[in-house]
């Protein structure tokens, strides 16, 4: 069974980490990037205690050792700039180092299934940035959607919440969720971030590599 691995420079891990994953392995940051445990981990939880540039370098080093194991950055003081840098370097998630155990389980479930985990403010910022740099390459894909589904998808890609979309379109949040579910299935995406990438014509670097037949 794969174990969760926490990488930290602390002499003792934050108790909440082991409350969430009692069998987790805790590694000292200095030795972590060379550890053979990384490649077989379920998730690598990287405790951020360095500046953004050093953090990005560390994430890339860990990714090189750990192959396709998801990396979640745990920050003492979460900031949008640091979160953006972490995701750009290849992290699959970004949250507070003091996140509650039950939420850590939610984070794990999302990233293990190929999704991205960030706070709502950072998610909106990322999607708004995507919308500003989008193009028309998604047009053929969006043609699969109904008019309402497309309106919801484009609103999500601009960073709108379900509540905001419901208010603007004059429908219920439950209906918004139904349109999103249908859109996910028709477009073959797994979450709001992938939907935003597709709508804005941005290549999705979070997709796992395809297996090559022997």
**Using only CA atoms, what is the Rg?**
18 Å
| The named CATH superfamily of the largest domain | Response regulator
Described by strand count, sense and barrel closure, the largest sheet is:
5 strands, parallel
- Give the fraction of residues assigned to helices: 40-55%
Strand order of the largest sheet: 2-1-3-4-5
How many β-strand runs?
5
- The general outline is elongated
Structural classification: alpha/beta
- CATH topology of the largest domain, what is it called? Rossmann fold
Given the structure, what is the number of helices? 11
Tell me the strand percentage band. Answer: 5-15%
Distance between the termini: 25 Å
Summed over residues and divided by their number, the pLDDT gives a mean of: 81
Query: What is the element string, with H for helices and E for strands?
Result: EHEHEHEHEHHHHHHH
Number of spatially distinct domains = 2
Task: List unreliable stretches of 5+ residues.
Answer: 203-214
CATH architecture annotation name of the largest domain: 3-Layer(aba) Sandwich
Using the coordinates above, name the CATH class of the largest domain.
Alpha Beta
Please characterize this protein's 3D structure:
It is a single chain. The chain has helices spanning 15-20, 29-32, 52-66, 80-89, 101-112, 120-132, 139-142, 147-157, 162-169, 173-187, 192-199; strands at 5-8, 25-28, 44-48, 71-75, 93-96. A 5-stranded parallel β-sheet has the order 2-1-3-4-5. The protein has 11 helices and 5 strands, in the order βαβαβαβαβααααααα. With 214 residues, it is α/β, with parallel strands linked by helices. The chain has 2 domains: 5-118, Response regulator (Rossmann fold); 124-199, Winged helix-like DNA-binding domain superfamily/Winged helix DNA-binding domain (Arc Repressor Mutant, subunit A, Orthogonal Bundle). Helices cover 50% and strands 10% of the residues. Helix 3 (52-66) packs parallel to helix 4 and helix 6 (120-132) runs parallel beside helix 11. The chain is elongated.
